[in-house]
User: Fold these one by one.
Assistant:
Number 1:
Amino acid sequence: MFTSLYIHVPFCEKKCSYCSFYSVVEKNKIDSWLENLEIEARLYKHEPRIKIKTLYIGGGTPTVLKISHWRELLRIINENFDLYYLKEATAEANPNSLTQELINFFLKNKFTRVSLGVQSLNDYELKILGRIHDSKIALCAMELVKASGLFLSCDLIFAIPGQTLRTWAKSLKTVIKFADHVSTYQLTLEPDTPLGQELNNQDLNESGYKFYRYAQYYLPQKNFLQYEISNFAPEGKECRHNIAYWTQADVIALGPSAVSYVNGVRYKNPELLEKYFSPDLIEREELSPREREIEKIILALRTKWGLNRSELLPEAKKILDSLPQDLFIKSGNRIALSPRGMRLGNSIWCELIGL
Ligand code: SF4
């Protein structure tokens, strides 16, 4: 059995003003988090051990961990899972805490990618987001990864208050000089965040449209093809770990707030630093065969590969047929979203979710 493994590192230097992910700033709790992580990982220890094909260390900010923590983390993973067949290993990083020492550690330990939270290369926008790095630090971090030979993926955010098409274009243009993969996300204002409260939870959807459209226009010209709603990469450099989510493959996720998907059942760990894996605290959601089918359609339509029309439920087929046909690309029996369809993806999911 092959699966993907995600580890949530719930620590950050400081909370960014828009962030609603589960992370804390108390780094003195890293040791007890690792102890709990080991107990959770042992629950998956079988003989033979589960074979991991993709590994993703995300957060939070994994690069706040010291090398000694990273060693401990890899010991825990190696003792409980089989990494022999590993095809891809990603470490998420923030520009201010990514060091040459960490890069050397990644190189020595089978990591293949670094996913860097650049977010913007405009200092004013970074300030609005409450990031602790500035554009110079982000550039240094990108150079560091590029020079190492590891694949570099950069996250960028659009629809930041005050952002213009010019600053967005500049961030994109600079990032692709270094990156092998770009993920673009629209800023969403969550009510429980300082930025959400400050801006009264405005809906930025409309203001985001032009930025997204520009990314769709610009990046493919530079050979960064849109292979998923938020992701662009040259052919062959797509993120395999994320493809596991979009194809409903099994993903074991460890750590507080982590969400696993195994055999059609979703398990969500609570947002707690300790004992978050106690069975009575984990939310369990078993999808019915029909829910799995609908989810499969929605996930497949997020990607450029789409799906075979014969895999569509008759009701889903009817809905897709009733929508403007320029939202789709059809080739042979396959159907996928066109760039316009990707822009209007949310409305299409709303139609399908109600099935
Ligand atoms: S670094 Fe990432 S996870 Fe941490 S607070 Fe900022 S956005 Fe949230």
Note: The chain has two domains: 2-244, 288-355.
Number 2:
Amino acid sequence: MNSYQIAKKLKNRYLPNNIDFSLANRRHSFLSECIIPTDIVALSGKGATLKTNKGELIDFASMTVNCILGQNDPWVNANLIAYLLSGRPSFLTTRVGHDYYYKVADRICKTTKMTNSVINHRQCNGTDVTELAILAAYKHRQNGQHILASFSNSYHGQGLTAYLASGLQRKHLFLVHESPVVFLDEPDHTEDIDTQDLTEHDKNTLEKLYDIRDKVFAVIIEPIQVNNSVNTSSKAFLKRLKYVCESSKIALIFDEIQTGFGWLGKITAAERYGVWPNLMALSKALTAGNGPLSALVSDKIYQDIVEGTGAKTNGADIRSLVAANAVMDRLLGIPEQQIPSDIDEDLYKELRSGLLSQFDQKCHQLLLYLKDLQSLGKGLIGKIKGDGLIRGLEIVNAKGVNDALMAKKLQLQLLESGVLVRQNQHTLIFKPPIVITEKEMAKGFGKIQKIISSNL
Ligand SMILES: Cc1ncc(COP(=O)(O)O)c(C=O)c1O
């Protein structure tokens, strides 16, 4: 029997009405320090909407793993099913080649517009790939360069290197007692990415970097610090940063784990800002939640990594590569002759033009809703931060002071009412999938308005 024939027999196994809800009572066996699943149990999902045992949940957070295509994207699912049924290998050691190794690597290099790049893709997470980026820059360092420059309140994951390199994670550092990391002040938040003006504060930060330039082998930065209340760098800052790095032979690393793959209307923040790093770390957004994969994209000279440091055993899961390829199809579109002619008309059109072509409209719509919310919530809602589909809504108290407790309270109330947003410090984070429909936006923001009004 082949997989297709067996799958037909398993149809009932995954039906929502076969879910054992009593299992939800065991959720307290999760470590108390981890994020414990609530008693909301997901039954099914489509786009930005989850059906749960407590009713509908509109996902304005893309499940936090950068599911830019929401749930069950039909094209990604179809490609995965077709691949699974093809009989081709499901997993390979990287010592055995596969056309998708080359095809996807090549496509990621092209779509990220990182010229002359190579790619190290692996079945792992964001923490691993930022470490790999730092390692690659370190191996390539010049004489006398031993410092890694990072930024205060940065977040690069949960591993030893990430604890060293992240402003927010230093409190977790263990085993290592001396640190070669210098933390520069986080970039000034800008309301307008495209501003040409460098603030005094940013000028001083760059001067500090300039003063130690001979000792620095790399600078690692998130163009938008999502985990720092969506602190958004300006183009002026990133351009000058690039200039300082280039003129001092310092490797510039962009951690694009939050910003990469469509969230700012372009494939990368680098493209949105018009500033390209030497090394770009991409991760979970590559497959939009359809399998583990990360990619370090950089000039070849950085990737002559010593054996045993850069090529982990896990290589890349072929199914994740198939998913990443289908995600690129969705975002960028594909030639008409590659689209099956007898598919759903809307999907056909989207595949022809790519979802990024609808980005401005989606982004505009989101901003309008957030502005409405801001007017409604005067005294409770402060600034709207971020760019594109990555937005933060600051929550303040009656004195206008940032209010993290209130932000947490609002997030929980929103979850109860059927809306998922993320909360970070005093900020509610909105990162809706690009496939969110007008109806979903209207429904979700209707619920948010009610919760905001009831807290005024
Ligand atoms: C900017 C940034 N870098 C690195 C990471 C680490 O990724 P992971 O949790 O997959 O290890 C994250 C996780 O959210 C992140 O937001």
Note: DSSP finds 13 helices and 17 strands in the chain.
